[in-house]
Amino acid sequence: MSGIRELRRDDLPAVCALYEQVVRSGSTEPSEQLVRYFERTFFDYPWSDPDIPSLVYTDSDGTIGGFIGSHVRRVRWDNRPLRLACSGQLVAAPDPRHRGAGALLVRRYLAGPQDITITDGATDYMRRIWIGLGGQTHASASTGWAKFLRPAAVGGFLMQRSGHRFLSRSLTAVAPAIDAAIRPILGRLGGFLPPEPVTTAEELSVDGLVEQVSDAARRLRLRPDYDPKYVQWLFEELAAVGFRGVPVRHLVRGRSGKVVGWYIYHLAERGIAQVLQVAAPMGDTGAVLDHLFRHADVHGAAAVLGRVEPSLIGELRQRRCFLVPTDWCLVHARDPAVLAVLGTPQALITRLDGEWWMGHHSIGLSEKRHPPMRVST
Length: 377
Hints:
By secondary structure, the protein is α+β, with helices and mostly antiparallel strands. It has helices at residues 12-22, 32-42, 101-110, 124-132, 151-161, 165-189, 206-215, 228-240, 285-298, 313-318, 336-342; strands at 3-6, 55-58, 64-77, 80-92, 116-122, 136-137, 144-148, 200-203, 222-224, 246-253, 259-267, 272-279, 303-307, 322-324, 328-333. The chain folds into 2 domains: 3-141, Aminopeptidase (3-Layer(aba) Sandwich), CATH 3.40.630; 144-326, 3-Layer(aba) Sandwich (Aminopeptidase), CATH 3.40.630.30.
């Protein structure tokens, strides 16, 4: 008889084979790196929680026909500890026998003991499943924003993503000259290019992030409950996601030397910066964004991309950022008050706290690791 049970360590080769076949290369032979990656992110990370495990769907003969990954985070709501579960990788075998396995896995996962469940890399299909099971769309976090710094370079990147290789190569070749001509015009228009920041920055350390988020408790009703062991693991994993680029993490100070906020993002070699967290709960959000944009610009980014957080909306508009499509962010919670806070500036739950940034798509295909980028502006 088929059914759903907890993922076990000895299931990982079969689970990775299924994931490799359906999501990645089409092969049924996953790399050893992928197996190790699943082991360290599902079983061997600091906040692994046996009460909220990853799940597998099995046939009557015990064959694994589907699985859903679980990444547990700790948060505080009005200083009360809660467990936040990130619904990660969801895969079902391409076999008529497993039709509906994905929905069954999601239903079982949402019924777990966690206080909040999220996923921030969802497809339209996943969104339909969640809505049918009582979940909701996190509207602002399902909207992306973009700060374009070198428009021609962005065009080359989009052509490459669309599969137009000849046009991509042609545009990429002339993009530096086009952008060199365009940028003085953008500078005169105002707001399109980041100004010289009035702030300074230093590398954001493990203890620094823990301290800043803890100090922000007076201004935030819902926030991560970081500890040094987890943040050290988090920073190491950010460096392991080679395809996203160099991790940059900065603590930003104002003219008086007082901390105004911090940011964490990936600066990719192709020039697209992906923002994971921007926070200024006790300072100036605009000043933090200005430093981030300037840093990305100085290091040659074509664009800075992120998702819309309630605390950023006004500042993004003033800085000529555009709304762009992104993945669905879905939420589920038993307490409506928690859901209400999630959509306000009183919550700090960002992409850094979800599974969107994680490296399951690329681990084993490229094992390149990047140390954090040092401050140079």
